[in-house]
Amino acid sequence: MAAIVSQFVRPRGFWGLLAGWEMALRPSNRRRNAWAVDLLDVRPTDRVLEIGFGPGLAIRELSRRAHQGRVVGLDHSKEMLKQAGKRNARAVRAGLVDLRLGSAEQLPDFEEPFDRILAVNNMGMWPDPDRVLKDLRRITSSGGRIAIVSQPRGPGANAETTQRLGREAAERFRRAGFVDIRSETLALSPPVVCVLGKAG
Predict the structure, then answer these.
(1) Other C-beta atoms within 10 Å of 115: how many?
(2) Which segments of 94-142 does DSSP mark as H helices, in order?
(3) In 3D, which of 32, 66, 38, 68 has the Cα closest to residue 52?
(4) Cβ(129)–Cβ(123) under 8 Å?
(5) What torsion do the CA atoms of 197, 121, 30, 196 make, to the nearest 10 degrees?
(6) What is the distance, to the nearest Å, from the Cα of residue 94 to the centroid of all Cα atoms in its chain?
(7) Tens digit of pLDDT for each residue in 37-95?
(8) Which of 7, 8, 28, 87 is least buried, going by the fewest C-beta atoms within 10 A?
(9) What interhelical angle do 13-25 and 2-9 show, nearest 10?
(10) 152-184 burial by CB neighbour count: b if 16+ within 10 A, else e?
């Protein structure tokens, strides 16, 4: 079981290929990603960063909205880089989408700040979420928005678990310097929480 779960954390090899397909085809994943992109209110000229883009579902939605801007994706899995690259091949060729191998813990140097930042089911993998959020605040443009989406997994995960994750994320946002913090919930099983904040 641990080996299977690890493939959804960092997909690799043949089983990672299958994990990516599962993530791309599962209706709940599609719904969760589209919902998160909607909440971010992406504008046509925005510069957008997604951390942990997986098979590239949200990248595709983000690039449709920021069609005069730029969408950068960062993921620590070579397999997900490959799958997301194929899924977004046209936008990559056009220079609208830039997919990179990397992680939230070691953000590369970006030439400009981002207007929107998204991470879906990713913060739970960060060894030091407070530090990462401070780093993300540093690369968010004034007035820019961030959305962190979490859906609890494992035995006993329920609505109460989701609420706790939301409260913890909101407090981390405050410590990182984000303002206008709010939470939204998507009625899946278990529920999904999206915590949004703004760079002052």
Answers:
(1) 23
(2) 129-138
(3) 32
(4) yes
(5) -10
(6) 22
(7) 999 999 999 999 999 999 999 999 999 999 999 999 999 999 889 999 999 999 999 99
(8) 28
(9) 70
(10) beeeeeeeebbeebbeebbebbeebebeebebb
